[in-house]
């Protein structure tokens, strides 16, 4: 991972060496704004239907080419998502569940089985993707864990990714470790670690609970200190430890 990053950087750095010495600032030193980390900034994304930050996009294309050779078509179902898109998803679910008679905090607990609180999605970063095998014809929802298991349509995809994705910098975030809390197992959600590790490190350095308390989307008025503390601990930080 470190070495790949170094190679990519040194080739672009060599090109710009005489023009712009600032390219030597290491990626790790880049400071992301809180707007970027919360999906509220207009960031530059690359690749039609891919929509990732440059370095993540380039690594994804390399991985996609390798997967093609193994008969697998890495198809992006979802990648970058901004704050307002996540807000719309959250509010739609919140209204649906509370209209069915659920208490606000129960509705929020149900939403966060699979969906994030706006401002805290890793999809805000331009580093994370939900992917499947586009060659497989699948009925109904594609992002269902059983479809990635033995006998399921994405079994080959899963086996290939298990063996190769980390070579390209992509790590599963929400693993099937039974001791893990927070979001349920998502065999489709991968993160480009060379960028997302420093981003998470910077994000957790902010006062996330205080930031969320200032939001005013539907449901946010019910966030308590205790709820936010466990959400941050379980849903944001209890992930694949290689990404911490
Ligand atoms: Zn995802």
UniProtKB/TrEMBL annotation:
One MF annotation (Gene Ontology) recorded for this entry: carboxypeptidase activity
Pfam families: VanY (PF02557)
Ribonucleoprotein as UniProt keyword: no
Highest taxon of source: Bacteria
Record SUPFAM superfamilies: Hedgehog/DD-peptidase
Cross-referenced Gene3D superfamilies: 3.30.1380.10
Keyword Nucleotide-binding listed: no
D-alanyl-D-alanine carboxypeptidase-like core domain boundaries: 50-194
Protein keywords: Carboxypeptidase, Hydrolase, Protease
Protein name: D-alanyl-D-alanine carboxypeptidase
Organism: Maribacter sedimenticola
